[in-house]
């Protein structure tokens, strides 16, 4: 293949962001957060989410998601609470330590976006964002 598939190019960019964010988190003392834990934590919502839904969105088994949530909980990034809609179920919520890590991650993501905008120019960056948002309509079942 002469040119890489667009999906590979997106993956390379996503992995770059993931590594930059991980490095920033580690430098700030969040060095116990593994890439697998971070990928699961990235799917947490303000209202909480069930482990089964985390597993589905992360495309991992429920057992793997449970292990990762256990690790996140032991490290104080998340907490589990009763689901008000179903007393038999529990929701995973982001804890204060997780929220601080999340703020740092978002700050690093914004810095990367500014760098990419300087490199591509505002017009091309806007076009990239628009094209990726349009693709999300057909690629992201959780949009």
Your description of this structure?
The protein has 143 residues and is mainly alpha-helical. It folds into 2 domains: 74 residues, no CATH class; 62 residues, Winged helix-like DNA-binding domain superfamily/Winged helix DNA-binding domain (Arc Repressor Mutant, subunit A), CATH 1.10.10. 65% of the residues lie in helices and 10% in strands. The protein has 6 helices and 2 strands; from the N terminus they run H-H-H-H-E-E-H-H. Strands 1-2 form a two-stranded antiparallel ribbon. A hairpin with a 2-residue loop joins strand 1 and strand 2. Helix 1 crosses helix 5 and helix 3 packs across helix 4. The longest helix is centred in the C-terminal third of the chain and has 25 residues. InterPro entries: HTH_MarR-typ (IPR000835), MarR/SlyA-like (IPR039422), WH-like_DNA-bd_sf (IPR036388), WH_DNA-bd_sf (IPR036390). This is MarR family winged helix-turn-helix transcriptional regulator. It holds the Pfam family MarR_2.
